[in-house]
Amino acid sequence: MDGTSFQLYLDYIRKELNAQDPAVLGVIVALLLVVLTIVFMKILWGRKSTRRAILLTGLCDSGKTLLFSRLLTGKFKKTQTSITDSTAIYRTKSDRGAGMTLIDLPGHESLRPQYIEKFKSSARVIVFVVDSAIFQKEVRDVAEFLYSLLTDSVVVKNAPALVVACNKQDVTMAKSAKLIQQQLEKELNTLRVTRSAALSSQDGSAGGGTVPLGRKGKEFDFSQLPMKVEFVECSARGSKGEEGQADVERLEICLAKLA
């Protein structure tokens, strides 16, 4: 259709609309708005439904793989450091649908980036597993890994829910979820300041694929993030060790709400 034909078509539509009764025209407009709204909602829901993965990530030896096994089967399983991802369908207790894809990502520093890059676009929920028993020793490394996730442009755009699973609560000296949250906020705020200063001393621009963390001019806290954030205490091993049940109920409830 050339420009002249298209203009004639528009003129015809305009005349037909002008000839209609105002009440009828109002109904047509209302129906059109309803149709457009339905189409828009389907597009939004389609984008969300394509992200059906729960990513289990965190540092080495934080208990991700045992947590993966407990969530799927409830059973204890001897584990070793993962060098590749493990994937399975996970259904919450109230889930009668197709379920979600639970993915256990390697925690080794040299492997993490490639697996995060591979799966981040499909993440509906990111479960960041922390070893509560030695958190004080690892707080800097935990914060740096978390910082890289929270400033990733794809993660920020998709805004998957973030669940910080404070694992190994069966250990006597384990830190509470509240304390872990407070210390992570302080450490992330420090990282934000130092990283910003480093960028300013170079060329003043952010690195490729990254976005600023939190709100400029304010101390960082997790409420500033575009995604829902929850801290939960759990123990993949459980207080009775291999023979006992895991303490992951609060994590399961949290995942059920976010699924």
Provide a concise account of the structure shown.
This protein has 8 helices and 6 strands, in the order H-H-E-H-E-E-H-E-H-H-E-H-E-H. With 259 residues, it is α/β, with parallel strands linked by helices.
Describe the structure.
This protein has helices at 3-19, 22-49, 64-73, 112-119, 135-150, 153-158, 177-202, 249-258, and strands at 53-58, 86-90, 100-104, 123-131, 161-167, 229-233. The longest helix has 28 residues, at 22-49. The radius of gyration is 24 Å and the shape is elongated. The model is unreliable at 43-48 (pLDDT under 50). Helices cover 47% and strands 14% of the residues. It is built from eight helices and six strands. Helix 5 packs across helix 7. The chain has a six-stranded mixed sheet with strand order 2-3-1-4-5-6, with helices on both faces. By secondary structure, the protein is an alpha/beta fold.
H/E series:
HHEHEEHEHHEHEH
- Supply the helix-strand structural class: alpha/beta
State the strand order across the main sheet: 2-3-1-4-5-6
Poorly predicted regions: 43-48
Provide the descriptors you would attach to this structure in a database record.
259 residues, alpha/beta, 6-stranded mixed sheet, 6 strands, elongated
